[in-house]
Design a protein that fits this description.
38% of the residues lie in helices and 14% in strands. It starts with a helix and ends in a 12-residue tail after the last strand. Strands 9-10-11-13-15-17-18-19-20-21-22-23-24 form a 13-stranded parallel β-sheet, sandwiched between helices. Among the domains are: 113 residues, Up-down Bundle (Four Helix Bundle (Hemerythrin (Met), subunit A)); 124 residues, Rossmann fold, CATH 3.40.50; 88 residues, Winged helix-like DNA-binding domain superfamily/Winged helix DNA-binding domain (Arc Repressor Mutant, subunit A), CATH 1.10.10.10. It is of the alpha/beta class. It contains 26 helices and 24 strands. Helix 13 links the parallel strand 3 and strand 4. Helix 1 packs antiparallel against helix 2, helix 16 runs parallel beside helix 18 and helix 18 packs across helix 22. The longest helix is centred in the N-terminal third of the chain and has 26 residues.
Length: 822
């Protein structure tokens, strides 16, 4: 009997329990849950018979049984999300109800397919007829998979990352130390009721977070805990925001502090029926401060059934019940990991200098991160290059006794050998806060502006850094297998960020004013005191990155930045006074404002933006957009505007966009919840080439004059559920090549005259359930090469005889809602 047989039975039993709970609690999902119970109860005795038959299935048949486990596990995961969702989240619950309905149809198709489920029970016969039915089932299940994306570099790069991160027992990324650590920590959090707080302790880059994620993905752990919350704390955490996320993740309640008095658990349970009664696992990753840990542990301790897994490079003595010290890789494990990064295989290839490889691996001291980064940097390099790296690694031994400095010096060698612009782009990554996702568009914009690159070169550098394990490309889980630059972000290990900061300061320690990058490495209440000491002279910084809390006018110094081209303002505040020194940045080309507070910040001194004559890119996140009609002078060189999680109604009210932004070519608005309609003046911005409106749930209509945007090539209206129709003017966009209306769940139809878009190459329209027919003019879309849609309408597209080169791709369903925690 295979392990899958056992887990399939366990998952089916657990799924039935979850469905019973949903029937009692969720009116929206009750009908689908009842039907699903019927189907799963049909499958359960079949699985049990296989489980106890003692028959070992052939590999092909076992893989088909694995598919049953996958489907059941999908259902269990979806049910867990339904049960965890607060009843006050109406829109979220509607989305979950739709996903329950789709999942019910998937199971129904599986049960009623060519291979009836009872054939599995006849496994001890395994006759030829049964084999034929299995093969037919395999073809049916393969039909729900989607094809390979045409987004070449992006899709391939993300796919490589995902493949490299598939850590399983016996793989190069998961050695014996990891396997042993996983078993021991699992025993602590599952097998010991007396251990409520467990710590994984180890050096930076030793694989602590990898181990924690492996534990969270373990089937036994997932079945033991009803809920799992993974929070990254970091060096400069926003404690109140962490508390809110933690409380919301465990209880499903969205108001922390105001709705929950600081009273003992029995009283809280009596007054608030949303307290979770099951078991929860809370992972606190990258914890630095004992005070922060103490407060988070105190909060979780108020809730019964919760266990905490702390991940840190520091050994905490207070509040921890048991510590597991993560060991470094053994010699053979280190060699396998290094060879995989350097050669793409587990061992040393023939004709490679074996002794040289062994010497370099030895210098990495068993650190997984160092092995991966240095190994990737040596890939496809000549032997003389390898010898040079080996010599430099050996010399770095005596630089500093501290572990962190020795690690940084070793890894710095791989950075110094990068081409000049690639190295500079890597150093730019240190300008962003630790443990935060960097939107791909921000990074590309910065590189284009300050390194004189075009976008294709910037993407190529990004891919090279990813291939060398110096950053990680992360795909938005909502998009399934479909990726574009809008759904990709960048993350970086904190040790690599420290390396970027270390190298940025190296060589100019004697003069803060001469640094090319002036960076606040972590969040502080005010500007660093050392900056004040340099205000009597101009700062030569090309990039300035500031990370503070609320800033008022008097909190800023008088500073001159005659060469600054990029200003990044990271803050956490409800009000924020823009720095007066902005008007002394004559060369500023990219301005990024990101607020990490729980509410939108009100910006003061916004009129200073009028002084930025050379500004080309503006990114505003989680702020209330100031009134744009008060900008005294037009920003003639501004090409790109991105508004994310912003309140925009006040800022856009009555504004004449072409007067303020006469050369605007790209406008992005994401999660702007108060956006009901776009200003009509947008239709007169004739230079606009890309318009992206995503996740704006209140957007009800698009301007009737949208057809006036004759230069528009990209139109994304994604996840706007209140939008019910597209204006006929869209059919006048003669240069449009890409249209995305995915997840506009109430959109009733495509425009009748859509066939006039003769340059349209791609349409994304997945999860547009209301669109059940196609207009007759689609046969005139002679440039159309690709459509991504739901299975229900795919057959209509495939039946268009006048489009023989059209590729129709059925979108893969994605049940995960983990992105909501971000």
């Amino acid at each position: 009997m295979a392990v899958t047989d056992f887990f399939a039975g366990e998952i089916a039993t657990e799924l039935i329990k979850q469905l019973i709970a949903i029937c009692k609690r969720s009116t929206l999902c009750k009908t689908n849950a009842e039907q699903l119970m019927t189907y799963v109860e049909e499958l359960l005795p079949v699985i049990q018979e296989i489980k106890y038959s003692g028959i070992e299935l052939p590999q092909v048949r076992q893989s088909q049984l694995d598919r049953i486990s996958e489907i059941l596990n999908e259902g269990s995961e979806l049910c867990r999300k339904v049960l965890a969702s607060s009843r006050w989240h109406v829109y979220k619950n509607l989305q979950l109800a739709r996903k329950m309905e789709k999942f019910q149809k998937k199971v129904e198709n599986f049960i009623k397919g060519p291979m009836q489920a009872h054939i599995l029970a006849d496994v001890h016969h395994l006759r030829f007829e049964s084999a034929e039915r299995f093969d037919r089932l395999e073809g049916r299940l393969a039909a729900i998979k989607i094809g390979v994306s045409d987004d070449r570099w992006l899709e391939e790069a993300v796919k490589r990352v995902e493949e490299d991160e598939m850590d399983v027992d016996g793989s190069v990324n998961f050695g014996a130390a990891m396997v042993l650590g996983k078993k021991k920590v699992k025993d602590m959090i599952i097998g010991r009721d007396d251990l409520r707080v467990v710590e994984i302790w180890g050096m930076g880059g030793s694989g602590k977070t990898t181990l924690a994620r492996e534990i969270c993905n373990d089937e036994q752990v997932r079945s033991h805990f009803n809920n799992m919350i993974f929070l990254t704390v970091s060096q400069s955490p926003n404690l109140e925001q962490l508390k809110q996320k933690l409380w919301k993740g465990i209880t499903g309640n969205h108001t922390f502090g105001s709705g929950v008095p600081d009273v003992p658990i029995p009283q809280v349970k009596a007054q608030y029926n949303w307290i979770v009664t099951g078991r929860s696992l809370v992972v606190l990753d990258d914890v630095w401060c004992p005070h922060v840990l103490e407060q988070l542990v105190h909060l979780v301790s108020r809730i019964p059934g919760c266990k905490i897994l702390v991940v840190s490079r520091f050994k905490f003595t207070s509040g921890i019940d048991r510590i597991y010290e993560l060991e470094l890789l053994k010699e053979d494990e280190a060699m396998s990991l290094f060879c995989y990064s350097a050669f793409g295989q587990k061992g040393i290839p023939f004709a490679v200098n074996e002794k040289l490889v062994e010497q370099i691996v030895k210098e990495c001291k068993g650190l997984p991160l160092a092995l991966k980064v240095i190994g990737a940097s040596l890939r496809d390099q000549p032997e003389m290059y390898w010898k040079s790296v080996k010599n430099r690694l050996s010399r770095s031994e005596s630089i500093c006794e501290s572990y962190e400095m020795k690690l940084l010096e070793r890894m710095a060698i791989s950075i110094e050998y990068l081409p000049g612009k690639v190295r500079e782009c890597f150093l730019d990554l240190g300008c962003f806060p630790e443990d935060k996702k960097i939107p791909l568009d921000i990074l590309i914009n910065i590189w284009v502006e300050i390194h004189d690159l075009d976008e294709e070169e910037a993407f190529a550098i990004l891919t090279e850094l990813s291939n060398k394990n110096l950053l990680t490309l992360v795909k938005d889980a909502r998009t399934g297998d479909i990726s574009s630059s809008c759904e990709i972000s960048i993350t970086q290990h904190d040790v690599l960020r420290d390396l970027a900061l270390h190298l940025s300061k190296k060589g100019v320690l004697e003069s803060l004013n001469k640094r090319k990058r002036l960076i606040m490495p972590r969040r502080e209440d005010r500007l660093p005191k050392e900056w004040r000491r340099g205000v009597d002279q101009p700062f030569d910084a090309q990039i300035v990155s500031i990370h503070t809390g609320e800033m008022k006018e008097l909190d800023w110094f008088h500073m001159d930045f005659p060469k600054a081209e990029v200003l990044i303002l990271n803050f956490s505040a409800k009000e924020y006074f823009l720095p007066p020194f902005i008007e002394r940045m004559p060369e500023l080309r990219a301005l990024v404002l990101i607020n990490y507070d729980t509410v939108n910040a009100v910006l003061h001194n916004s009129s200073i933006l009028s002084s930025l004559e050379n500004l080309q890119s503006l990114w505003l996140e989680k702020v209330t957009v100031p009134q744009l009609n008060k900008i005294a002078y037009p920003l003639r060189n501004l090409h790109k505007i991105s508004l994310v999680l912003c309140k925009v109604n006040e800022g856009l009210d009555g504004v004449d966009l072409p007067s303020v932004f006469p050369r605007l070519s790209e406008l992005t608005m994401d999660h702007c919840i108060d956006l009901i309609e776009l200003p009509s003046s947008l239709c007169n911005v004739y230079s606009l080439k890309s318009l992206s409106i995503t996740n704006c749930h209140s957007l009800q209509e698009l301007p009737l004059g949208l057809g006036g945007l004759k230069s528009l090539r990209v139109l994304r209206i994604y996840a706007c559920p209140s939008l019910m129709k597209l204006p006929p003017g869209i059919c006048e966009l003669e240069r449009l090549s890409y249209l995305d209306i995915s997840q506009c769940v109430n959109l009733g139809s495509l425009p009748e005259r859509i066939g006039r878009l003769i340059r349209l190459e791609k349409i994304d329209m997945w999860e547009c359930a209301q669109i059940i027919n196609l207009p007759g003019s689609i046969g005139s879309l002679r440039s159309l090469r690709r459509v991504i849609c739901d299975e229900e309408i795919a057959w209509l597209w495939k039946g268009v005889k006048t489009l023989p080169d059209l590729r129709v791709q059925v979108a893969q369903e994605c049940f995960t809602l983990d992105w909501l925690a971000e």
